[in-house]
Amino acid sequence: MQPFRFGPPARQLYGVYHAALGDATRASAVLLLNPYGQEAVRTQRMYRVLADRLARKGHHVLRFDYYGTGDAAGSDEEGDLEGWSQDVLAAQHELLRRSKCTRTLWLGARLGASLAVLASRSASPPPRGLVLWEPVLSGEQYLRELASSHVRALSESYSIVPPHLRDRSFPGEALGFAIGGSLRQQLRELDLPRQSAHLRDLPFALIDRPRATGASEYAASLAAEAHKATHIPLEHDFDWTSEEALNTALVPHEAVHLLATQVECLP
Amino acid sequence: MNEIAVTFGPDRRLSGTLTVPDTEMRPLGIVLLNAGVIHRIGPHRLNVKMARRLSEAGFASLRFDLSGQGDSRAADAGLPYREQSILDLQAAMDQLGQSCGLRHFAVVGICSGADHGLACALQDDRIQGLWMLDGYAYPTWKTQALLYWKSLARRGPLGSVGWLVAKAWTLPALAAQGLLRRRPQGDAISYGRPVPTVEEFSSQLEALVARGVRICMTYSGSLLNTYNYQGQFMDVFGRHPWAARIECHYTPHLDHTLTPLAAQEEACHRVVHWATQVGVPTTQVQSRRAA
């Protein structure tokens, strides 16, 4: 596990490289893409466990923080989808350089999965496959989810929510993170099914909860055109935004196992 | 401002980020660490935001992950959690000291991070300042009374009647189980943290104050059961001469993890202001560690 900073001086990113253990001659490279905000905080441990597990299976793995998130440079407000898509490409470049592999596989959760789809349009080389866990399909709906999660977080965190925080919206923030105007606008325009035409040429696995809104339709529409699409339902009680690590698993074993398996299974 | 990823400690297993100011550096380094299970960026990235604000004020800082947390590898020694945390904090001070030429430090900790900072300060006299959000709290009879009063006020008249009826309904069962005695110190918000007795905590604070450590204790609005009014700290410890030398704030508009951006901004402001008031010995005597 090697933590480091990379990227141009004006856009320094933070990454952790997990070199393949054992016989690295069969190694492939896997890029892990974070979800957004509190969801990224919530999944940090799971990604570390997943990366360790993949490294033990002979994969080189890079997990990293986009600009304006985590331990990377930049403020919350400076993060946006276009910039983060470029960060994905920069991270792939770094992973290829370190691993000496020729192709990468991308695995993303929530908005990280959406970024995998968006960034793969202009990736060179393109990823050899995508593993998408509960991608954000509609940015508009995601903004609504963030808003309601924010209100819920306040009610859970305060013993008594102060009057000035009750019954009001929080357009510039979500669960403790500032949302810049650019990101908000890009999320409003995010409609992943309409931005996924290029996936017909890409093997991918879509993991979602059974009966998740739009997921089956998304998978079906892609599968109609793509011959290498897999849709896997995963029932779990992992709360993406919870600050309380008390009631749901921090590292849900079944999810880690399934994600690692999909990395192994993709051609 | 420069941010540098560093690995340090035994076998370089600890991972952190140095934040070094562009301006002239103050002679006090700030150490930031995990809050509970959250990795070193802190709840809502607060440690990152705080480190940058401190940097603007001339403070170098190191935010880092304790052994086994975040991006730090687990320790091999098999020491108890608290002992290992103290060693990790000392390694962090060593690293910050070597990188920036500093000999004196302050620890900014939230929740369990506050506990670790306190424990380390008791063993390492390089620590000149402790800023603790939701550290150990000791309820009084007034805390209990206010807990019920605020609970009733929050529920309104009808809700209060229902709540009181429900409470009354459970009293016989609680009495049968012997659960109506005084609440044990510490509560669920401590996330299972073991809480020292009032006497132990008192003697710890006394020792630190005697050594000249500047201590700021801030209690959020998330501790209704254990800390819920201005002046509670003095009600518990006010009879001791050293208590008046400890800065203590009750901030019900801030929550335990500083969720609103305004709360984060205020916390950053408070920490920077406090850090500028932490005294550093002018004699550049090589610091010594307690055995």
Element order, helices and strands of chain A?
EEEHEHEHEHEEHEHEH
Spans where pLDDT lies below 50 across 5 or more residues of chain A = none
The percentage of residues in β strands of chain A lies in 15-25%
Largest sheet of chain A: 8 strands, mixed
Number of helices of chain B: 7
Q: How much β-strand is present in the residues of chain B?
A: 15-25%
Roughly what is the average pLDDT of chain B, rounded to an integer? 89
Helix content of chain B: 25-40%
Through-space gap between termini of chain B: 36 Å
Radius of gyration of chain B: 20 Å
Helix content of chain A: 25-40%
Radius of gyration of chain A: 18 Å
Most extensive chain interface and residues per partner? A-B, 40 and 39 residues
Secondary-structure-based class of chain A equals alpha/beta
Shape of chain A: globular
GO molecular function (chain A): hydrolase activity
InterPro entries (chain A): AB_hydrolase_fold, Hydrolase_4
Keywords (chain A): Hydrolase
Protein name (chain A): Alpha/beta hydrolase
